[in-house]
Amino acid sequence: MKHILGYLLGFTIFIVGIPALMWWVSGMPYPQDMPVNRLYLAIMVALAGLALSIWSIVYMKRVGEGNPFDAMGHNLAPRTSRLMTEGPYKMSRNPMLSGTYIYYGAVLLALWKWQALLVFLAVAALMTLQVLSEEKRLEADFGQEYLDYKKRTGRFITLGKNDRR
Hints:
- By secondary structure, this protein is mainly alpha-helical.
- It has helices spanning 2-25, 36-63, 95-111, 114-142, 144-152; strands at 70-71, 74-75.
- Strands 1-2 form a two-stranded antiparallel ribbon.
- Helix 3 packs antiparallel against helix 4.
- It is elongated.
- It starts with a helix and ends in a 13-residue tail after the last helix.
């Protein structure tokens, strides 16, 4: 039950809440006020970001038998029993967050307001602190295996690093 609450909390905050805040601070524009081409592009980018995040969550749950998410030291879902380095985790050490950032990029594209960008930047700053906290925990849990993984895989995107083994 605890892991279901963790996933629901994550969905509520990251997929609904933050985009709603971005929309609210942007003056709550209606979709019909947005250029159709930009809106359709935003929808496609949002779906790609959500797909990456969902793939990462499912992969971690099935293969890692848990989830790395702990909110600044508070476990909200079971911890992974093994380090994920394949699937979406071969492209990024944080593919869930990378997918979420892509999703927020789509929200920014749809809204096209500087206020939404400020919300995104604030969230990105907070999430960077969270990622740094998780990295410390992963180093403690997985030691040299995680350090080697860090060398070959980027925090949010890997460009050419995977070939250096």
